[in-house]
Design brief:
Strand order of the largest sheet of chain B: 1-3-2-6-8-7-12-13-11-9-10
Distance between the termini of chain B: 26 Å
Shape of chain B: globular
Strand content of chain A: under 5%
CATH topology of the domain at 3-246 and 436-476 in chain B: Amidase signature (AS) enzymes
Largest interface: A-B, 54 and 77 residues
Radius of gyration of chain A: 23 Å
Order of helices and strands of chain B: HHEEHEEEHEHEEHHEHHEHHHHHEHHEEH
Largest sheet of chain A: 2 strands, antiparallel
Oligomer: heterodimer
Distance between the termini of chain A: 43 Å
Number of strands of chain A: 2
């Protein structure tokens, strides 16, 4: 069974924490999920297959031209934060 | 007029002939929201002021509808049903919202979802659980729970949802309505809050297949803002609907539908499988060819874990922008890392965190090959198998769920280790793996509660899927139903 310490490490890497009870639930859930994941390893010749990352090749996918399009105003960008100073998002000092 | 049971075309005709005004339909929808919101919690935000934009000459002009609350609407609160976005007001419109406005449809509200669209129960929204319109003790399914409930209750004739594993098609089954997700890329996702980008689709809920064609005709189309959208095609899905399914060949999967597999299952599952086979016979009588096809069991058993691995890994990355800095509730902290850490700890619910930890585990260097890449390999094997079958067959039909909507108290932990139940309940993710167009429509009622049937077709052939679905609807003769039409 995966340890709670390991789960805490994974959670902290994603910048959040959980309480003791939640880690316990997660530990039990992991037990089930890891067993389910073993079903994948039972598939024969899996190593010979190219991994698929999109449903099908996207023929029309290309970068947009370098042209000015719609853009947000400073007020729009800052609309969802109360913490702002001189048209910028205010955060604690990052340079000592 | 009978607003709750009317089709989009009937409502359109009533507006065009002056029998009813758009504003009166809106007021009717508001009245129903007032009546149902406390019990069913379908909405996060209710747009109580009538506002109509756009054209007058589309079929949906003047008609009320609802949008899932993970779709960006400029100036309108959009929370994704998460505390971390509980005050977020977008500054731009999703492409589909623009299209719906231009077409003259009238938004009545933003609907409740499983937090960040990650979940299949409708029980994890920051504003509370969504209840099944057929039975308040049961869930409606998710993640597009509120959209499904709003259509099933008759509040709106159509609603928009998103579907990453079956998030439109499963709640459609539990709500006794139609749920359609077209081919990957058919509808722009610009403005949809991403969950798992390689699996995410936008689609619609309606109460009949014809209405699904009407709504999809409005939503579809190439979008320069979404590089995954398909090129435009010169076809109107509504015009393409006809009675002709001559020569159409369907298949179902033996390893999911064989009655003997479910000998020890409960009566509801047995009845669903029995009804499914009866339906197959009816479809044959109606002109479809239907074959039973066998697929490697190991491959089918791998559908659910493959979905979990890919979706959790992608979600972990997609939601990294939720920091409480530029938007979302700001928490105190000595530095930005502490602010983000606290914002994410407080802002995400337990279930979301559990999914993210799983994603983090999968993406660890030592697990990438064994878990993530193997899941992507299985995805290709499943999709290749389906594409091979689609060379001979026009569609795959299967029960959309094995049972009626579960009760809230039901625990499915043990089922999750039972591959046969897991495959029956999770096979619709196949359509997300391959981007296949896929539609659920009502099949039958068990003790007064609906169970759906699902049809999945070839990529890009949305029009044929809709056409075949309409024929199936004709055969089953269940359409335009709202909860309350059947007594539980």
């Amino acid at each position: 069974m995966i340890s709670k310490e390991k789960l805490k490490e994974y959670a902290n890497k994603l910048m959040f924490d959980m309480n003791e009870e939640e880690y316990e639930t997660l530990q039990n859930e992991f037990d089930i999920i890891l067993k389910q994941m073993e079903w994948i390893e039972k598939i024969p010749n899996i190593k010979d297959v190219e991994p698929m990352t999109f449903p099908f090749p996207l023929k029309n996918a290309c970068l947009r031209k370098d042209e000015v399009g719609d853009y947000l105003t400073v007020d729009e960008v800052l609309m969802n934060t109360k913490h702002q100073v001189r048209d910028q998002v205010k955060v604690p000092k990052v340079v000592e | 007029m009978d607003y709750k049971h009317s089709t989009i075309e009937q409502l359109n005709e009533a507006i065009c002939t002056g029998k009813v005004k758009s504003e009166e339909l809106f007021n009717e929808a508001m009245h129903l929201i007032e009546q149902y919101q406390e019990d069913y919690n379908a909405f996060v935000t209710i747009i109580s002021k009538y506002k109509k934009y756009g054209q007058k000459d589309t079929l949906i002009s003047g008609i009320p509808y609802a949008l899932k609350d993970n779709i960006s609407t400029s100036g309108i609160l959009t929370t994704a049903s998460s505390n971390i976005l509980k005050d977020y007001i977008p500054v731009y419109d999703a492409t589909i919202y623009k299209k719906l406005k231009q077409a003259g449809a009238v938004l009545v509200g933003k609907t409740t979802l499983d937090e960040l669209a990650m979940g299949g129960t409708g029980t994890t929204a920051h504003t509370g659980i969504v209840r099944n319109p057929y039975d308040k003790q049961r869930l409606i399914g998710g993640s597009s729970a509120g959209s499904a409930a709003a259509v099933s209750l008759g509040i709106v004739p159509f609603a928009i949802g998103s579907d990453t594993g079956d998030s439109i098609r499963k709640p459609a089954s539990f709500g006794g309505i139609v749920g359609f997700k077209p081919t990957y890329g058919r509808i722009s996702r610009y403005g949809l809050f991403a969950f798992a980008s390689s699996l995410d689709h936008i689609g619609c809920f309606t109460r009949n297949v014809r209405d699904a064609a009407i709504v999809t005709d409005i939503l579809k189309g190439n979008d320069p803002n979404d590089m995954t959208t398909l090129p435009d095609e010169e076809v109107c899905y509504l015009d393409h609907l006809n009675d002709d399914i001559k020569g159409r060949k369907l298949f179902y999967i033996k390893e999911i539908c064989e009655e003997k597999i479910y000998q020890d299952s409960d009566e509801n599952v047995k009845k669903t499988i029995e009804t499914f086979h009866q339906t197959v016979e009816k479809l044959k009588e109606a002109g479809f060819e239907v074959d039973e096809v066998s697929i490697n069991k190991e491959l089918l058993n791998a559908i659910y874990p493959t979905y979990m691995i890919i979706s959790c890994a992608e979600a972990t990355s997609n939601n990294a922008n939720l920091t409480g800095i530029q938007f979302g509730p700001r928490q105190d902290g000595q530095d930005i890392n502490e602010i983000m850490f606290r914002a994410r700890t407080i802002g995400f619910s337990e279930l979301i965190k559990r999914r993210f930890v799983l994603g983090s585990y999968i993406l660890q260097k030592e697990n990438q090959e064994k878990l993530f890449k193997n899941a992507c390999r299985v995805r290709r094997m499943i999709v290749d198998k389906m594409n091979d079958l689609f060379k001979e067959y026009d569609g795959l039909i299967l029960p959309a769920s094995g049972t009626i909507a579960p009760e809230f108290t039901h625990t499915s932990k043990s089922e999750k280790l039972d591959p046969k139940a897991t495959v029956l309940e999770n096979h619709m993710a196949i359509a997300n793996f391959g981007g296949f167009p896929s539609i659920t429509l009502p099949m039958y009622y068990y003790k007064g509660l609906p169970v759906g049937i699902n049809l999945t077709g070839r990529p890009r052939e949305d029009k044929d899927v809709l056409n075949m679905a309409q024929k199936i609807e004709d055969v089953l003769q269940i359409k335009n139903k709202v909860a309350g039409d059947y007594d539980v």
